[in-house]
Specification:
mainly alpha; 12 helices; ABC transporter permease subunit; MetI-like_sf; transport; membrane; MetI-like
Length: 276
């Protein structure tokens, strides 16, 4: 009787262990061990390798390019996404759902496809190159530099911002807006004093996600970044072309730290003050 009771008491524990073990193995094999190895790799070439992004002008420039591009894309996406998302949430018109579906269609495309779209528009064999060749006798291209990357990142990020702001605008407290209008507030005043405070957490969270996505975008950059180097392509070159695993790991850590800091700040200042 006692042995049977003990066996029955242990059964739930073994069942729980059987359920948790596969997840633990998967976590250790595909996240924990690679991360530990990533953090340890730069030490093979000395502690200074960890600071390569700060001590080498080329890597520092690549990181600066990536941060500047990501900030520009984030700001532009937030402005356009807020304008379109709020308008769609506040207005009903025929074809609204179809328009929203078209605006969010890029969510289904990988970065490589979006880069290909930009090449078809502004590449050497693109539409604009053909038109400029016909009109002025010169093939004008922009796909392979800063402008091409900016447009591709914007195209990739905008649907996320539109969907986020549309959902946030639909849940806004309309009573505050109605009260402000009844007191004679202009549309600009309502936007500044009502909309912006209510949408501030959404803006901060969405901006952090957009920035992190732009920092780590590889497919689009791999397609377009031949004249403007960004840190994901630098990491790819060091790892694949030069087999410099320690330096690639160091740059990956730097990229992760910058992205993590932005996400941490967004969580810290975007949290509910009461929850804090």
């Amino acid at each position: 009787m006692t042995q049977a009771t003990t066996s029955n008491a242990w059964n739930p524990r073994w069942r729980l262990l059987a359920c948790v073990a596969p997840a633990a193995v998967f976590f250790a094999a595909f996240w924990l061990l690679p991360v530990v190895r990533l953090l340890a790799l730069p030490a093979d070439k000395g502690a200074a390798t960890y600071f390569a992004v700060l001590t080498d002008a080329r890597y520092l420039q690549s990181m600066a390019n990536t941060v500047a591009l990501s900030v520009a894309v984030t700001l532009a996406t937030l402005v356009l996404g807020a304008a379109v998302g709020i308008y769609l949430a506040r207005h009903a018109f025929p074809g609204k759902r179809m328009l929203l579906s078209l605006l969010t269609l890029p969510l289904s495309f990988p970065g490589v496809i979006i880069g290909f779209f930009v090449i078809l528009l502004g590449g050497r064999q693109g539409v604009i190159a053909d038109l400029s060749d016909t009109l002025v006798g010169e093939r004008i291209t922009f796909a392979y530099g800063l402008l091409g990357l900016f447009l591709a990142y914007l195209y990739f990020s905008l649907p996320r911002a539109i969907a986020t702001y549309a959902a946030a605008a639909e849940s806004m407290n309309t009573q505050l807006e109605e009260a402000a209008r009844s007191l004679g507030a202009s549309k600009l005043r309502v936007a500044r004093d009502v909309w912006m405070p209510e949408l501030a957490p959404t803006t901060l969270a969405c901006g952090a996600i957009l920035f992190a996505t732009s920092m780590g975008a590889f497919g689009t950059a791999f397609t377009l970044a031949s004249k403007f180097e960004v840190i994901p392509i630098t990491i790819y070159n060091e790892f694949t072309n030069y087999a410099n695993f320690a330096l690639a790991a160091s740059l990956s850590i730097s990229l992760g730290v910058v992205t993590w800091l932005v996400l941490f700040v967004a969580r810290r200042f975007g949290a509910n003050p009461i929850a804090r």
